[in-house]
Design a protein that fits this description.
Layout (H helix, E strand, L loop, with lengths): L1 E5 L9 H5 L5 E7 L5 E5 L11 H5 L5 E5 L1
Antiparallel strand pairs: 1-4, 2-3
């Protein structure tokens, strides 16, 4: 089982992770971080994440880490 963790302080809401997620489990949230940027959030649906890490690989700010349970 895979899961991702998004560092909201590093995220600048570029949306790349949203566009590359094959299961569409990432979206840009409505809350803002300390720099005033909205940040990406992960929809933690049970067993939905494939663990492909496309989001983490694509993130230009290195704000996403893949975590295995």
């Amino acid at each position: 089982m895979s899961n991702i963790v998004i560092d909201k302080e590093k995220c600048k809401a570029c949306g790349i992770c949203v566009s590359v997620c094959p299961k569409k489990l990432i979206k840009i949230g409505s809350e803002t971080n300390s720099s005033g940027s909205k940040y990406a959030v992960f929809d933690k649906q049970k067993d939905a994440c494939l663990g492909c890490a496309l989001c983490a690989i694509s993130c230009p700010d290195i704000a996403i880490k893949e975590v295995y349970k």
